[in-house]
From TrEMBL:
Function: Component of the pyruvate dehydrogenase (PDH) complex, that catalyzes the overall conversion of pyruvate to acetyl-CoA and CO(2).
Protein name: Pyruvate dehydrogenase E1 component
One GO MF term: magnesium ion binding
Domain of life (superkingdom): Bacteria
Cross-referenced NCBIfam families: aceE
Amino acid sequence: MVAPSSANDHHVLSALTNGLKDIDPEETGEWIESFDELVEKHGTERAQFIVRSLLQRAGDQSIEVPMVTTTDYVNTIPVDQEPEFPGDEQIERRYRAFMRWNAAMMVQRAQKPHIGVGGHISSYAGQSTMYEIGYNHFFRGRNHPGGGDQIFFQGHSSPGNYARAFLEGRLTEEDLDGFRQEKTKEGHALPSYPHPRNMPEFWQFPTVSMGIGPLNAIHQAQFNKYLHNRGIKDTSEQHVWAFLGDGEMDEPESRGALQLAANDKLDNLTFVVNCNLQRLDGPVRGNGKIVQELEAFFRGAGWNVIKVLWGREWDTLLQKDKSGELVRIMNEALDGDYQTYKAESGGFIREHFFGRSPETKELVADMTDDEIWAMKRGGHDYHKVYAAYKRAMETKGKPTVILAQTVKGYGLGPSFEGRNATHQMKKLTMDDLKAFRDHLRIPISDEELEKDLYNPPYYRPAEDSEEMKYLMARREELGGFVPGRLNEQKEITLPGEKAYKGAKKGTGKQMAATTMAFVRLLKDLMREKDFGDRIVPIIPDEARTFGMDSYFPTAKIYNPNGQNYTAVDRELMLAYKESPEGKILHVGINEAGGVAAMTAVGSSYDTHGVPMVPVYIFYSMFGFQRTGDAFWAAGDQLTRGFIIGGTAGRTTLTGEGLQHMDGHSPILASTNPSVIHYDPAYGYEIAYIVERGLEQMYGTKDEDHNVMYYLTVYNEPIVHPAEPENLDVDGVIGGIYRLKEAENDGPRTQLLASGVAVPWALEAQELLAKDWGVSADVWSVTSWTKLRRDGMEAERTSFRTSGKENPVPFVTKQLEGATGPVVAVSDFASDLMDPIRQYVPNEFATLGADGWGFSDTRAGARRFFHIDAHSIAVRALQMLAKRGEISADIPAKAYEKYQLDSIQAGSSGNAGGDA
């Protein structure tokens, strides 16, 4: 009989019998004996069926049976259900040793005194078995008949990927010596982590920003099914693998979309969690058991859970353990203890682990301390890991997580294995080097090692060696090398001029917000033959806010399970409609999921060779503020597409209040080099910007295709004029054009405005002319960010050429000949407009919505921030007076006339401000 759990063990066991009295122990023993006989005669698979049948019968009889969210701390797959290992384990072990050596030596050589850039030695050392089982038997390359897998490698273990690529002949010794020296050794350089932008021919997914990899992997798997269900590409044989750390699973993003994977039945997805029980500074759960915690979490979310905890050496002991004491101790030992065991010795394990019970101490009585020490954790055992991967691939209807117990720094010696500081340890001593070489049986002499501690040799066997022939044959059979990117720009049919006509003709007498102008344009683009099916709208739970519920009946919402309920609004024209063939990815109230979905869709040109166009629309406040890290990863992954910040600005959504009023997202977005921000005022501007965006991202011109266009659009309705005659299209795309020249003579000023502020500038133009005889030209600034970047690039060019080339910034050229002071205004903070100040030849002032937001009317909020039409006029008058071009008393008169100190007197804008 298994000893009962103590009250303090509730976190490690399901404790099914706790609190229940055994009124007939003899009968209980007979039942257990009968069950043991069943297992012995018919195996674990038959036993599983009988137990499940009894549980089902108990439910029929209304007998309460608690849900089992955690199982004993043993391997999920019984020994008698393990498949035969198909490879040659000895050969695979030999070249895995070469990789482990080269990975560690790459980091060691990067620690030369005059370099000292570091690297992580321990991460790959503990994970190499799990990678190699995948590389040798599961990971499919692009040339596989069923298509290539998508593999999210764990960021800190990148030296292992480089070490394998070195054996494969994809990297040279000179490349390995360029680790973490991307500029000083350009041409032979390797980024520290998986960075597709910095190594685009090799990496597919950036994963070192903890938590983003798991989330992106889930949405990648969903997108694979999406492509399949829509009939765009057969992805039925492609699998998504995500290699994660147990400490990483504490990130909210790591666990935040588990239900999506379960609900969508993503059996094309496998998480492999490397449970070395350590995070960066110490144990993940020193007083607990992270494996059990994760098992309960994933099982509760609907995932298939496979635990790989113990190597095959433990099988015999578990079979001999008739008392159940060994399993009890495995259950009760805490993670802090398991970490300590591998940092000590076999004798320590004998005393402190097996010595917890007389029965378990007897189990190892005939074993030496070295034999006890050599008993592996499950994540280092080829047979156990292979069995888990095979079971994961065979599981249908749900995603799988493999929880593999490992030792961080495995095989690196006592200075590294299982130490709290092992993540930060970058250097091996000479003794460490020699011990590591001996452990791996690398044919390098002491003499060679002793020549230079920081220049130990790499090892690569001959091309015709048994190991190299085997390694290359395995990859050829599985479809080629991974990871890798093609970097091809496929030519596709882009929308014709007809698709943009509706947006360019204006709204006549009708009023519409720029959000609606964009939504109407998108609908026209989705109708385009040979192109429309490439567009993937991605929407959090705000489709109706953005007027996109009109898409529901025709485009439909993607749901692989269809719509199996009767919709409450089924009789309405805009009824909610879900379908496996739906185009819309509706991610719910989940902005992080929205960016992950966009990343999967926007990199489809590479992952699937199928260019798709994501259009992710959201409350602008909840974009770069909430998910800026994810957008950075999207840029690193070379994602393409449109980011639409709806209900933008600090004063257009004033009914919603502080946390919804976006005055800074373009400023945050400007820090992402791959994001190009536009703040359009009218539908025709949107049309030209979108047309240019599609051409840049998906056209064939020689330019940077790997960009994302961020458009901020508003919920305030205005009349959109038709495209003006002789429109300066280059100005629209370049960031600024003259919208309306002054029609009167008088002292001159220039009003620069963007987005929803353009109508205020036009109103100010009228006020200045009518009340004060001042001439004002109005400029629409479609992109402050582009103007700033263009100016900076002009300065850099001049610096690099020592003044031999002095390019003129675009904004400087556009304003050439425009006289008078400049007033720049937007519905965002002054930090957006002010950075172009140095490129404007005129006197320059900014009016921005600086500070916290609040709930109020649009007009009141604009008067409070002094960004409304009357404030623009007064600021221009102040600058003209300072120049002596108008009477010095005029600004004060205007200030009083327009009651600028009275918030109630504000009048710029429409009533409203709700969502």
